[in-house]
Amino acid sequence: MIDQFGRNVDYMRVSVTDRCNLRCVYCMPAEGVASVPHEQILTFDEIARVCRVGAELGIRRIKLTGGEPLVRRGLPELVGMLKGITGIEQVTLTTNGTLLKEQINGLVSNGLDAVNISIDTLHPERYREITRGGSVEKALEGLDAAAAVPGLSVKVNCVPLKATGSNLTGSNGTEEDDEYIRLALLAKEGKADVRFIEMMPIGLGKHFAGRGGDEILGILEKVYGKAEPCTGRLGNGPAEYVQFPGFRRRIGFISAVSHQFCGRCNRVRLTSEGYLKPCLQYERGTDLKTLLRGGAGDPEIKAAMEKAFYEKPAHHQFGVNGQPGENSQGKSCAEETLETKEMSRIGG
Ligand code: SAM
Ligand code: SF4
To answer: Where is the Radical SAM core domain (predicted)?
Structure first.
């Protein structure tokens, strides 16, 4: 459906859990987050109901996320349920990949259309450091398993970190630039599109400096030559893609901070606790769980979702290029309460 600023909201990111088997430094505290009791998390039937009503409002693509979605038992079954909804054209997944090898067949046989795998570095020691104990070998096994499935769209997502002071998890030297040069090889070899995502000041991300897309492009062009911009719409989201000479797949950049793309934002988010969030940065949302569990009928749920979609804020205020904008209640974005939860709780 079209929101108050003329944007077509057709994409919903659905978090299925706030739990994760990793502890990425910019996403989760070392001790993890206090897990939400199981009964507070939406059941698969409840998620499917929200998605069915969402499809009636024009949602066409669903991305399953978390936390780590693959720690939730039975995820392939949910993929099948969502693929069976009239109007839903695509169900995709974002994962750290470490549990993917074991689950890829079940996911694909239930209709999964695409998978994004988050791998910030191929260097085993640095990966362990960033994820606080994860194994890049396991993530790469997941990537290989996904890349071997004919017709499955596979992307690798990397959030480049800048080193600051004693923080060893970032990179900013020429030696470390090698990280991104090596990751880009995955695209050269044709295993996956590789996308570099700017760190957003959300949750723990506020304490880390990222490296911008323009900077990473410069690093890659020194090695791989001049990249040509890809034109036309590619994928569901805001990534800008380029093609390097001799590469079989593309390199993408998602630069929410340095190149704000709110004017064409098409997404809303459903948290694992059933909170419908129209914008990542603001706390505001609609408590669908209370409606779902309070006996509301579909028309009531639809009306609540329609209002949330319509009132999507004009833009985030991550700091650059933000223009004042208002929602339909005449409330300026600057007056919105900012989100304080970690990314794993929001559903990144
Ligand atoms: N566990 C899954 C994964 O890692 O792909 C799904 C959830 S995770 C929150 C989704 C994506 O959000 C990951 O690619 C992660 O790197 C990214 N992310 C987390 N915090 C972020 C932040 N502050 N800024 C930008 N991206 C962030
Ligand atoms: Fe887990 Fe993904 Fe957050 Fe890393 S980015 S801690 S894998 S939810």
So the answer is: 4-239
Instruction: Please tell me if the CB atom of residue 66 comes closer than 6 angstroms to any atom of ligand 2.
Output: yes
Please name the residue whose Cα sits nearest to atom 10 of ligand 1: 348
Contact 67 CB / ligand 2 (< 6 Å): yes
Q: Does the pTM exceed 0.85?
A: yes
- The 3-state DSSP class for residue 292 equals helix
CA-nearest residue for atom 20, ligand 1, is 27
pLDDT in tens, 200-242: 888 888 889 889 999 999 999 999 999 999 986 666 578 899 9
pLDDT digits (tens, 9 = 90+) for 187-206: 999 999 999 999 988 888 88
Half-sphere exposure of 319 (CA within 13 A, CB side): 9
- Any residues with CB less than 8 A from the CB of 207 and at least 6 apart, and which? 26
The C-alpha atoms of residue 32 and residue 346 are separated, in whole angstroms, by 14
